[in-house]
Amino acid sequence: xxxxxxxxxxxxxxxxxxxxxxxxxxxxxxxxxxxxxxxxxxxxxxxxxxxxxxxxxxxxxxxxxxxxxxxxxxxxxxxxxxxxxxxxxxxxxxxxxxxxxxxxxxxxxxxxxxxxxxxxxxxxxxxxxxxxxxxxxxxxxxxxxxxxxxxxxxxxxxxxxxxxxxxxxxxxxxxxxxxxxxxxxxxxxxxxxxxxxxxxxxxxxxxxxxxxxxxxxxxxxxxxxxxxxxxxxxxxxxxxxxxxxxxxxxxxxxxxxxxxxxxxxxxxxxxxxxxxxxxxxxxxxxxxxxxxxxxxxxxxx
Length: 301
What we know:
Blueprint (H helix, E strand, L loop, with lengths): L4 H6 L7 E6 L4 H12 L3 E7 L1 H10 L9 E3 L3 H13 L5 E4 L4 H9 L12 E7 L7 E4 L9 H17 L6 E6 L9 H14 L7 E7 H5 L1 H6 L12 E3 L3 H15 L2 E7 L5 E2 L7 H14 L4
Parallel strand pairs: 1-2, 1-4, 2-3, 4-11, 6-9, 7-8, 7-9
Antiparallel strand pairs: 5-6, 5-10
Helix pairs in contact: 2-11, 4-5, 6-7
């Protein structure tokens, strides 16, 4: 169990530094986060983008980069293609998006000839440090797959379980959250949640326990579960919420950040390497925590 991002960082203290490939690194917040993680010995970096701007911004932040680690790319498309190529060549362990559109990087990632897709669906896992919850909480998928059918939900659950095992969880606890905790044919998400639980019990997602259907209050609060006499190992101990659709995940994450003071990191999994796709407006802290998350997930299994 990891209770905070500081504990996540502690897991990397004695680990071999991972190499981050930063696409369009000519961005102050992204560079600041990468330089901090690099100075702490968590990562090494290859910086891709407008070379003169990257070197200048780094100097303004008090760092003199080795020019050999900075690879010039004049356009976003060139930066995305070069960053993905470096991953294909084994020169980097994860991708970090800088000052560019998410779609531009993803187009290079999924290119059938030159990309780093694995032939399986990619999904987004948000990791949140929520005041009032006793450990880090995952939410998936709030950023990649808009309206997943059951097969895509299985891929999302599989990706989530694998991500948490990479974070050191032997048997992550997943909750397929719905508006109700009973199966109703009129509420498709409850039928799918029950099917996900059955697939998990059959071992389809590897070592994990998946409960569903379950409402979010029961997943996160033991006392609520006790009142409703809902018994499950996940009640009050959930590691990751599996949401029924991207909108639900997006609103859950943003609501916790906006109104509960949560801190967030995010990673896209399912490709050849983890990918941090923070918004261009994301804070330094969010980008730094996402680097920690990607570095941890990219460790050898």
